[in-house]
Amino acid sequence: MDKDTLKKEIIRLKEKHNVTIVAHFYQKDEVFDMADLSGDSLQLAQMAMEDKNPFLIFCGVGFMGESVKILSPQKRVLMPKIACCAMARMIDGKHFDDNVKILEKQGIKKEDILPITYINSSAEVKGKVGEMGGMVCTSSNAKKIIEKALTEGKKILFVPDRCLGENIAIMMGLKSCVIGDGKDPKEADIICYNGFCSVHQLFVPEDVEFYRNKFPGIKVISHPECMPAVCQASDFVGSTSQIINYIKELDPEQKVALGTEFNLVNRLRDKNTYVLSSTKPECPTMNETTLEDLYNTLKSIDDDKIMNEIQVDPEVAKWAKIALERMFEI
Ligand code: SF4
Question: What are the 10-residue block averages of pLDDT along the chain, 330 residues in total?
């Protein structure tokens, strides 16, 4: 089937079966254009909760579909590709427990640890965090969540993204360390797990220097999943939705160099926009989903042979939901 026919079939099938198509900002244009709802992970989880259709097809990575299922268990959530975010894959429940034990061996009692997990983590990790009294955060609200968590007077164990944890610590004037970096975690306010986003690691301080030399006056914008040296050298650091809003306010003639995922950068502005890298920083897992996959998922509903439906273990879902709800309360 050619692309135009595929698009027509997608629209026909989603209307026939009352399906909402959701796409993250990092999806390919051909998929993004078919979405009823689009946004970053937090916006999508919130919009999905309010959506009334019985079926939701989530074009994104695995943890996003899981979050929707946890928050809206009555919904049938399908994913054209259950692609796993590289960062989320860096920690599972066992790694989480092992890292808590490492901290205990280093003299920090379990009851003195308050875990916070970035939303880019599996349901299993969110469940562990919820069970230990912790909560979820996103890159938009991480500072607010950490401020609230600090009022409990505990050490914060931040998983899985060491860059987001360290960037927030720098922003708030707090001390941080990464487990295994040789620093004493007892001295740190935020103890980060050693995970990272393979895409946002592609931006390096030399890229910032290059663009500043090439285009004096350029604005450098980065996502807090970038390494701290890049964020510190940027004019603006923000989550995906914050970056979009910041760019909207700029003069169209203002040159910008953006340190975030390629598909988003490519779609943001017609001109004066550069990717802050000599490479093409596409998220490989986000880019796995194609128009054909989306069509096949809808066809599976039509054929009553549903594919790639998201299921979360009820006990895991119970605690993961608590961790997510603690975030929404704040
Ligand atoms: Fe995961 Fe990074 Fe891809 Fe986002 S861009 S889904 S954090 S690998």
Answer: 94 97 93 92 84 94 93 94 92 97 95 96 97 95 90 94 97 96 94 97 96 97 98 96 94 96 88 92 93 97 96 96 93
Centre of ligand 1 from the C-alpha of residue 153, in Å = 31
User: How high is the pLDDT of residue 57?
Assistant: 96
* Ligand 1 atom at minimal distance to the Cα of residue 120: 7
The first and second tokens of residue 177, run together, are: 């360390």
Note the pLDDT of residue 39. 83
Does the Cβ of 135 fall within 6 Å of ligand 1?
Answer: no
Q: Quote helix, strand, coil % in the chain, to nearest 5.
A: 45, 15, 35
Which of 179, 196, 213 corresponds to the end of one domain? 196
Q: Are 130 and 321 in contact (CB under 8 A)?
A: yes
Pair 211, 184 in one domain: no
Determine the pLDDT at residue 49. Answer: 87
Which residue among 64, 121, 139, 283 is best mutated to probe the pocket of ligand 1, counting the most ligand atoms within 8 A of its Cβ?
283
326 part of a folded domain: no
Q: Could you tell me the CATH number of the domain that includes residue 223?
A: 3.40.50.10800
Residue 212's region, left for phi above 0, alpha for psi from -120 to 50, else beta, is alpha
pLDDT in the model for residue 330: 84
| Residue 321 in domain | no
- For tokens 């912790």, the residue is 134
The answer to whether residue 211 sits within a structural domain is yes
Query: Do 79 and 117 fall within a single domain?
Result: no
Instruction: Tell which atom from ligand 1 comes closest to the C-alpha of 61.
Output: 6
Q: Which domain holds residue 134?
A: 88-196
